[in-house]
Fold this sequence. Notes:
M1 Pyruvate Kinase, Domain 3, 4 strands, alpha+beta, 24% strand, 11% helix, elongated
Amino acid sequence: xxxxxxxxxxxxxxxxxxxxxxxxxxxxxxxxxxxxxxxxxxxxxxxxxxxxxxxxxxxxxxxxxxxxxxxxxxxxxxxxxxxxxxxx
Length: 88
């Protein structure tokens, strides 16, 4: 990570970790991962609690890319490698 803080994906306390996905573009839109249909609700910025549980400076390092809160519209299974799919 360019911030100098080295963490593994699971350390960020996120349910699903993605790369190359503009999560902010999913706010207010429906999308799918595996069998699960979701709607992006709002950004999920890192908080002080996350920093207490992980490493000092993580809040600043993840600012603007902390994740997305999403509503589950249809449940199902998500498997490693399932793409994030949405209509452009």
